[in-house]
Every structure is written in structure tokens, then in C-alpha cells.
Amino acid sequence: MASSLAEFCVQLPKVELHAHLNGSLSPATMRELVERKKAEKPELAEFRIPDSLEMDSFFPLFKFIYKLTDDEESVRIATRKTIDEFAKDGVKYLELRSTPRKNDETGMTKISYLEAVLSVIEEPRTDIIVKFIISIDRRNTLEEAQEVVDLALAFQSRGIVGIDLCGDVKVGLFNNLRPAFERAKENGFPLTIHFNEVIENLGEAPDVLSIKPDRLGHATFLDDYCRQVIYKENIPVEICMTSNLVCKTTSVLKEHHIKELLNDNHPFILCTDDKGVFFSEASNEYRLAGETFDLSRNELFEISYRSINAIFNNEELKTGLKKVWLDWKKEHASEF
Ligand code: IMP
Ligand code: ZN
């Protein structure tokens, strides 16, 4: 074995299916955006951008990032740099997600925000395939959620592959937004829902599961009913270990709920959630899983390979990606 586990995890081809755009900005991207804006807004240059994870720093960091991505060109730069970084880290297929946002000061609208992101996603490149999941925020009114579905329909042909429910887990109720998700589903959009990230969400879990989501984010707290439904319906779970640790929904990685999924051989995908604010790239999530649960390189490859089944895309692309993975494995046989 020539490489360290960390190097192996970078080289390993990976899919990333749970990455929020604004949570994914690296310090380098933040600094570039500050340079662009500091003449007009000198206060941005005064914010101290951390270079590594500082517990409890991610809320102010999110607020700061939103000040940086408040116009279309900044959104394009942020999207392009984020895609570059995922590609450099060995991600071959990325479903980036974001909540369309407007800013009255700069004139950015939800439509121009979305157009900015999609225009970059559409830029031709050979190292990574990028698709987009449009997010509905739990704080949204039903009208706002329906507006997101309108946008998804209007821009469907431009790489939007699914709809997400995200945002403050202690705010709002899924059922208030349900008609929007039903309409999205009727129109053929797969759904991924941030699910039971905190124990208080267990109350709405039967409602969420009854809409038959195609993937679930986190699924940290599962009672018997939830586990039974998720296993029976074979719903893949997007796992974000560092995010759960930083947000304190997991106390130690050894006790992370991925443990049960591993034991029960239930499908999951290792994801970053917010690689920028949590300082953990996709390869690092693989390394952490490997080290925490003593997984072999072959098992890490299998986790990555099986994740292809969970992408919001067609069978032809899945088959193509699987071939890329198997060819890579053959070429790197000495690394196993
Ligand atoms: P954006 O949608 O590109 O603006 O990405 C940032 C947004 O993603 C945040 O404002 C939250 O709404 C959402 N988000 C990021 N991480 C999490 C999480 O762990 N749970 C729920 N929502 C999240
Ligand atoms: Zn998330």
C-alpha cells in the first residue's frame, strides 16, 4: 500500500449528495469574495475567517457568508470554486443544493440567484458531473415553498434533479409545507428531506415518511417505527458525521448512528453537509468513517460504489459511473 488512508480517500472516486452551497465555501473562497467587496463594504475585511474548525463558530460564519454571496457574480464565483474543490477532492458526481435567496440592496432575485448557480453548473467540464437540488427552508410559508417548486419546474431542464427540505430543525412543521412537496413529487421530482436531526422531529416523522421521500438527510434519531419504514422502503440515508459532531447531535463518532446502518447493511452515502463551515471535505468523511469503524479500503470502496445507486439520475448514468469506479479499482489494485 503506497498511500496513507487520507491520500487513498482523496483518490477514491466519490459521489457527494448532501452539500449546501453556502455552507461549502472554503476560507480561500471567502477571502476572494471579501477582496471583491471590501472597497464597498470595508467591514467585511474585519471579519476573522477561521482556517480550521472552531466549535461554535459556524453560526457567525454562515451569517458572514450570506453577506458575501449577495450578488449574482459572487454566487457564480462561490459555485465555481466549490465545484473545483469537490473535484480536486476526488468527487466525480456532485448534487449541490441551495435555497434561492434574494437581496433587495443588490437587486438579486431568487430567479437570478438560481440562474447564477445553474449557469456555472452547466459549464462544461470533464472531471466532475454536477447537478442541482433546490432547497425549501423550514421557515418558508407554504406560498414561499410553492414558489420554490415553481422555480424547479421552470428550470427543470437545466440540471435540477430534486427538492430538499432544510433549515433550522426546530422551526416549522413538515405538514405545513406538504402540499408543495406533493406537487413536486407529482411533477416527477425526487425528494430528500432533512429528517430527525434532533429528537424533537420524531413527532412529524410519520408525516414525512408518508410522502415516500427518495432519500433522507441525517436520520439521526430513529424509533422502531421509523427504522422499520426506512428499512422496508430501502430509503438511502445521507450521513454527515462531522456535521453531527459539530452540531452536537452525536456526542462521539464511535456512537454515530451510521453504526446501526453498517450493522444492518442499510444503504447510506457519506456526505459533508457544509464542508466550509465544518472544515471537512468528502475524503475526510471517508477517512473518519474508516478510522472510527475500522473499515478496510475495500469496504470504503464498496460504500462509495453503492452510493451511486442513490443518485437522483437515470440508470444509464449510474451504469457509466459504476464503470468509472470499477476501472479505477482495477488501476489502483495495489492500494487495496
Ligand atoms: P444554502 O441553502 O446554499 O444557503 O446553504 C445554507 C443553508 O443550508 C443554511 O442556511 C441551512 O438552511 C441549510 N443547512 C445547512 N446545514 C444544515 C443542517 O445540518 N440541517 C439543516 N439545514 C442545514
Ligand atoms: Zn444538510
What do these coordinates show?
- The structure is a single chain.
- This protein has a single domain, classed as Alpha-Beta Barrel (TIM Barrel), CATH 3.20.20.140.
- The mean pLDDT is about 95.
- About 45% of the residues lie in helices and about 15% in strands.
- The protein is built from 15 helices and 8 strands.
- The chain is globular.
- With about 325 residues, it is an alpha/beta fold.
- The longest helix has 17 residues.
- Zinc ion binds next to strand 1.
- InterPro entries: A_deaminase_dom, Ado/ade_deaminase, Metal_Hydrolase.
Task: Describe the secondary-structure layout.
Layout: H1 5-11, E1 14-20, H2 27-37, H3 43-46, H4 58-68, H5 72-88, E2 91-98, H6 110-121, E3 129-137, H7 142-154, E4 160-166, H8 174-186, E5 191-195, H9 205-210, E6 215-218, H10 224-232, E7 237-239, H11 241-246, H12 258-263, E8 268-270, H13 282-292, H14 297-307, H15 315-331
Parallel strand pairs: 1-2, 2-3, 3-4, 4-5, 5-6, 6-7, 7-8
Helix pairs in contact: 1-13, 2-5, 5-6, 7-8
The structure holds inosinic acid (IMP) and zinc ion (ZN).
